[in-house]
UniProtKB/TrEMBL annotation:
SUPFAM superfamilies: GAF domain-like. It comes from the Bacteria. It holds the Pfam family DUF484. This is Phytochrome sensor protein. PANTHER family: DUF484 DOMAIN-CONTAINING PROTEIN.
């Protein structure tokens, strides 16, 4: 009698081959539903769960993430609508401001209300403004980079610029916004500054939609009052 030869071990595909097949046939388990009851996946909290349970949990997590994202989008849309309303009201008000002092006062009130700024400073180019609001040509050296950028700067800003804008209060400023004021046509009008004692209040990556458009309104209102050809002059 001859000894029977041992049975050869069945050859199974590699894990990589199985993964590749499942990726290429995502409907595989739809055609082999009984297999779902045999598969077990590790779970960090409650041990093992079935594939279906894990999929349901993942879908719930994804649903919660989508809900959060949608909530953030809705809140942002409401904020943008509110900002638009503030800008519209301010534009209408500035149109009827009697003089530059009224323009400055109305703008400062809007910034304190909308931006929750603790410190507001507006410096304007021209000899007709008082010392508190005047920006002399010699002082522009502090803001050449700002005007070159052409947009608001936020966060921790140059100490010399903060000292010029906020005076004795500069040492208490933890974060700030500097906004170049440029009238239509590119004429430099001045600089707008907002300051907060909190280092977290104004961040480099924050949105500047409101302060940018408010700065444009302010620059045009000042230009209008400085232009002898403006209506009302």
């Amino acid at each position: 009698m001859t000894a029977s030869s041992p049975k050869a071990e069945p050859e199974f595909p590699s894990e990589q081959a199985v993964e590749a097949y499942l990726r290429a046939h995502p409907d595989f388990f739809e055609r082999h539903l009984p297999l779902l009851t045999l598969l077990r996946l590790p779970h960090p909290v409650s041990g093992s769960v079935s594939l279906i349970e894990r999929q349901v949990a993942l879908l719930r997590d994804r649903h919660r993430q989508l809900e959060q994202h949608m909530g953030d989008l809705v809140e942002r849309a409401r904020d943008n609508e509110r900002v638009g309303e503030h800008l519209h009201r301010l534009a209408c008000t500035l149109m009827h401001a009697e003089d530059p002092d009224a323009v400055l006062a109305l703008t400062q009130d809007a910034l304190r209300d909308e931006m929750k700024a603790e410190l507001v400073s507006i410096r304007l180019i021209g000899t007709e403004h008082d010392d508190l609001h005047r920006l002399r040509e010699a002082d522009l050296v502090h803001f050449e980079d700002l005007f070159a950028r052409g947009r608001a700067q936020c966060g921790r800003l140059p100490r010399a610029a903060l000292e010029f804008m906020f005076g004795d209060d500069a040492s208490a400023v933890g974060s700030a916004i500097l906004m170049p004021l440029v009238a239509e046509g590119g004429g430099r009008t001045g600089v707008l500054a907002l300051g907060s004692r909190s280092a977290e209040r104004f961040q480099p990556d924050m949105g500047t939609y409101f302060v940018t458009h408010l700065g444009e309104l302010l620059a045009e209102a000042i230009r209008c009052h400085s232009d002898r050809g403006c209506a009302g002059k």
